[in-house]
Design goal:
mainly alpha, AhpD-like, 2 domains
């Protein structure tokens, strides 16, 4: 898996106790339910899509790929948002998926 964004890395340096608590919270909510790892990854993608969170989408697509979610499954999760959030928002989310799949978001940040 790739390194977290520099902004988040700096946050963990500046606020290590908060970052540790945040990580523990994430672990707790993942463990406190019946959903399997792939399903949880797709839910995170869906939430990021619905909220229009580009950075979160990049992060969650990377994580999803790391647990075996296929690009087709990721794109389908985003496509399912179309009737709810509309075409422009869904298309933006698809572009963020493609950013990760093509690596273009890494090249832009340099």
């Amino acid at each position: 898996m790739s390194k977290p964004p520099k902004r988040f890395q700096q946050f963990t340096v500046n606020h290590p106790r908060v970052a540790e608590a945040y990580a523990e919270l994430g672990d707790a909510v993942h463990a406190d339910g019946p959903l399997d790892e792939k399903t949880r990854a797709l839910v995170k993608i869906a939430v990021s899509t619905g909220r229009g969170l580009e950075g979160a989408m990049h992060s969650h697509v990377h994580k999803a790929l790391g647990v075996g979610v296929t690009p087709e499954e990721i794109r389908h999760a985003v496509l399912l948002s179309l009737p709810t959030i509309g075409l422009p928002a869904m298309m933006a989310a698809l572009s963020w998926v493609d950013d990760v799949l093509t690596g273009s978001h890494r090249r832009r940040k340099k």
